[in-house]
Amino acid sequence: MSAPDTQQRAAAERWFLYHGLPAVLRPGALLRRVWTRSAPALAAFGVMMASSVLIVAVTGKHTIDIGGAPTRGEWFALFILILVVPAAATVGRVVSRIESARLRGIASGVSMAVAVLGGLVGGPSPRLMVDLLIEGVVFALIFLCTATGIGSITGWAVRVTVDNLALAGSLFARALPVMLLTFLVFFNAPVWLMASIISRSRLWLALTFLFVVAAAFLVTSTLERVRPMLRSDDKSPDDDARLTGTPFEAMPDRPKRVPLTRLERANVVVVLGISQVVQVLTVAVVTAAIFFVLGLILLSPELLAAWTRNGSASGQILGMTFPVPQALIQITLFLTALTFMYLSARAVSDAEYRSRFHDPLIDDLRLTLVARDRYRTATAVR
User: Fold this and answer.
1) CB atoms within 10 A of CB 305
2) Alpha carbons 144 and 37: distance in angstroms, whole number
3) Cα–Cα dist 66/54, whole Å
4) Nearest partner of 65 among 318, 327, 328, 333, judged by Cα
5) Which run of H or of E encompasses 138?
């Protein structure tokens, strides 16, 4: 039995990275082609830094600080800020579809150049050395996530969420009962008073606590369902057909699964857990966004003063000041956590959600483990 050639092996490694299982790769494989594999993240960061240059050019400030009615330039800066995340995600996705390693390398170089130029001209701080230091840390994190496989897991989870937006809409419809509950919470003066008084750091501690509790419940329930798959070494008759057209089509299979390492088991659990958390969190964020817009529509200065005892009409997000009440920002974060907790419990007990999202996800991972067996067999050291 001949070993796979370099091109076939590289294609197999890309396939595993695309499916969020970097732990399957042979030692040292993750350290290869880090520069080209980092191209999507570098491109997204380059878009963000380019938007920072636009904001500085229009407002003359290195950060957004709008305490009253926005001027025309500040409205433009807010518009750019709203578009920057979708634009960065779109550019990153386009770059990720580039097959040529040479073109990917060029994309990485251009993206880094744009990001550095953005730091020199319009970084988040008026101090040049601080901006360059921040960029250096971001570059290091991007390359670290690429070299450790964290980036591939995150990218896989995002793709699964995007591909299942219709299912997320179905889950959103099931969130209507909790929306009624949060409606009562939203129109509750003591809750608004709490949101106005509590510090952002204390609020983040509370939100982290709620998130960890709900995520632990979701991941534990997922682990119980995936454990039989990790223990089983059964093969499916249609595995050959499903792997047709992949780098593993011509690789030999073995009747029994190669035992998974602890790192591979952890990778499978992390992939399933993150996919569940991201899916539920997406619906929770959309639900909270609805109430945020509702607050912008209904809140008048008089109502805000009555509910918050003359709370601030301006709020901060990531160190930037916006003409949005601080209490509205904080109560939106609180509603996000409450909705996430409810949907986590609902996702575990909802049979339709499991059959349409969870079960196909587990079956796809089972097929990925079949491909892993073929890869391990073909690349075994002789």
Assistant:
1) 12
2) 11
3) 17
4) 318
5) helix 128-148
Q: How far apart are CA 163 and CA 152, in angstroms?
A: 16
- In angstroms, the CA 236 to CA 33 distance is 34
- pLDDT value at position 109? 93
Q: What is the DSSP letter of 30?
A: G
Largest CA distance in the chain: 79
Q: Which of 262, 212, 257, 216 is nearest to 239 (CA)?
A: 257
Q: Rounded CA gap, 142 and 108, in Å?
A: 11
- At residue 316, the 3 state secondary structure works out as strand
Q: Is the predicted pLDDT of residue 5 greater than 50, yes or no? A: yes
32 to 19, 104, 373: CA distances (angstroms): 18, 14, 22
Degrees to nearest 5, angle at CA 252 with 22 and 20? 15
Question: Would you list the DSSP string of 31-78?
Answer: GTTHHHHTHHHHHHHHHHHHHHHHHHHHHS-SS-B--SS--HHHHHHH
**CA-wise closest residue to 121 among 59, 52, 64, 58:** 52
> Model confidence at 382, in pLDDT bands (50, 70, 90)?
very low
Residues contacting 179, CB < 8 A, separation 6+: 287, 290, 339
Most confident of 195-204, 256-265, 280-289, 371-380: 195-204
- Indicate the pTM of the whole model: 0.75
What residue spans define the domains of the chain? 21-148, 162-378
What are phi and psi for residue 43, nearest 5 degrees? -65, -45
Sorting pLDDT into bands at 50, 70 and 90, what band is 145?
A: very high
Whole-number Cα distances in Å, 211 to 51, 74, 166, 188: 31, 34, 24, 23
